[in-house]
Design a protein that fits this description.
Order of helices and strands: EEEEEEEEEHEE
Distance between the termini: 37 Å
Helix content: under 10%
Strand content: over 45%
Shape: globular
Length: 124
């Protein structure tokens, strides 16, 4: 199983980035997908999750209204559209696959597969 995250980079405060996570080796449409992030010196935290078919989504309060998670099951890819970025969004972002959206939003999460991280840096 591989979850390949991409799209990270440097953005200015107020700007936007779009992360992608391409999955292979698993029945993608059978898994809920999520994004987590870890800032330097901090624990990994939940960002967003989406159900198998994309009908349900959940967000951390800190990103609600600014970030949007979506998925394309035909392309085995999940996306995270990030708008109105702030320096507090600076972190390594990880995608994750789990059996249900509930497994992603609980703490600690019950993750089936983690992807490698992609760095997001927001300058003020």
């Amino acid at each position: 199983v591989q979850l390949q995250a991409s799209g990270g980079g440097l953005a200015q405060a107020g700007g936007s980035l779009r992360l992608s996570c391409a999955a292979s080796g698993l029945p993608f449409s059978d898994y809920a997908m999520g994004w987590f992030r870890q800032a330097p010196g901090k624990e990994r935290e939940f960002v967003a999750a989406i159900s198998w078919g994309g009908g349900s989504a959940d967000y951390a309060d800190s990103v609600k209204g600014r970030f949007t998670i979506s998925r394309d099951n035909a392309k085995n890819t999940v996306f995270l559209e990030m708008n109105s970025l702030t320096p507090e969004d600076t972190a390594v972002y990880y995608c994750a696959a789990a059996l249900t959206i509930g497994h992603l939003i609980r703490w600690p999460p019950s993750i089936g597969y983690w992807g490698q991280g992609t760095q997001v840096t927001v300058s003020s």
